[in-house]
Specification:
heterodimer, A: 160 residues, alpha+beta, Ubiquitin-like (UB roll), DNA polymerase, domain 1, five-stranded mixed β-sheet, 32% helix, B: 294 residues, Uridine Diphospho-n-acetylenolpyruvylglucosamine Reductase, domain 3, Enolase-like, domain 1, 2 domains, 11 helices, globular
Chain lengths: 160, 294
Amino acid sequence: MSKQHVTTTINGEPAEFLAEPFMSLLDALRDEMHLTGSKEGCGSGDCGACSIIVDGRLVCSCLMLAVEAEGHEIITIEGVANGDELHPVQRKFLEHAALQCGYCTPGLIVATKALLDRHPNPTETEARYWLAGNLCRCTGYDKIIRAVMDAAAEMRGVTA
Amino acid sequence: MSLSYASPTTVNEAVALLTGATGLTKILSGGTDLLVQLRSGRVKPDIIMDTKKIPGILGIIETEAGFVIGAATPGAVIGEHAGLAAAYPGIVEAANLIGSTQVQGRASLAGNLCNASPAADSVPAMITAGAIAIVVGPNGQRAVPVEQIVIGPGRTSLARGEFILEFKLPKPAARSSGAYLRFIPRTEMDIAVVGAAVNVTLDAAGVITHARVSLGAVAPTQLLVVDGANAIIGSKLDDAALAKLDAAARAVCNPIDDKRGTIDFRIKVAGVLARRAAAIAVQRALGQAAGTKH
């Protein structure tokens, strides 16, 4: 099985890696690029723990081949903070204790960033539907949704 | 044999690759079904051919004649196209029911169709809209009504070397619209137990002059229910017409019996959803006549 050379942009930086033809993008991010923030929960697109943003669209990195990343722009959880400064969504997840084990958290934060980039003023129902593909087995969704709505308000400049 | 991934940049290159390939070749659009099958070992392809670098296969074009939807256009893009949503709300709502936001970022109409699940949500909606699949292959191009693509669970009528390049939708007639409804045990992230799509065209008096009805998940393939359409054509969707539509929908069902829905349940729900989808389609067509957005 011959590896293919993939050139892409990850978190704003040019990146390249070698990928086996049928390797998932999630495996390439974790094993080739050592970006282990994206998690594998189900490997079948049901849990959202591997969520990334590709060309502005939220996707499951387990449902993309690594070779499909050629020429595209990828944002992973590692690219959400601005250096040492947490993204408002990350800060609100901490403030609201919207996590316990934390396994689903990178995916939820990336999915929430994608939501708020596109819809800065979602209703709670819209937020819940948008995040329906991100499963959490411990915290429960109420704290997560509170963090999402609070982050949205802060990012719009509204005091909650 | 070594596994390989290919991403041809022209139709001719893609067709040559498909016809010349030995071993199992799988066509990749959004990949939201294929990658799951790959990982589970249910399919073991030798070659994966990604269509997404072929010009025209991603995106939606609105023309005088109607719409051309690239075969690999993701659901999220379909959902954001205001013109398509106004003309064919049934297709847009059906495509957008498939999976999560993440799945919507990749999943395509061609993939939903060619994966050939009886429960594929977008297929009944495309059938009732009169969507035509433009199939390309070694013998050139052919235009195939969507209801002729799926021939059984996991099986399509596409010949070796063929794949779908795009879908064509006619410019909708005045006072026409559509709707798709599905039953699932939850509110999101599930697979249809029954799906029903209806498209109607009304005359100036609100009488249905043209209709198409299609059901999903109640037979090995999606069904075009001609008797259901005939039941409501010539009516204003009064109770008698709705009762006939309900009966016609139930009559064609040949569903499986499983824990998600018994045979009796699926048949009953098929009639109910056909009625409700027809009512929404008519309301939308009336709203369009009144110049309101739906």
